[in-house]
Task: structure prediction
Amino acid sequence: MTPLLSAIFLIITSLVGAFFDWKYRKIPNWLTFGVLFLVVGLNLISHRFEAVFYSLLGFLSGIGILLIPYLLGMMGAGDVKLLGALGSVVGFKNVIIIFILTSVCGLFLGLIWIIFRPGHFKFLITTGQALPAVDKHQKFPYGLAIFMGTILYIMAESSGYKQSIFLFLPWQ
Result:
């Protein structure tokens, strides 16, 4: 897949995922699995069988990265599948970079979220838990952080800074 087509897939997928996560606090399966099937299908049509393997591996890696936070109740399954869908586009190595950038964006967005919701900060300090069992619309939509991390990844990839920024990763 060309870098331009990959960037288009990444932007559309993460933007739609962020929109649904913000508005409904749910990322639809048709988006995440649709991207997976579309990417695998394009690779099959173009007879790039090695790319099919890397797409599937990227999907599983994206899911695997966020599986533990999901199992601990820290995020929804849609966030996990969204990172998996992005991994199917970029492969297993680059989905780790998207995850790192997403984590940094999530940290900043989480701090802003806490500042504008002081009751959550007091709850965190007094109980040690991030959120009480509340309405899902009071939870942080992590799809926004995934979108921002994806945009940063595209910017780093297109400007050539990805290699210099992530020298600590052994496969770069």
Q: What stands out?
A: The radius of gyration is 17 Å.
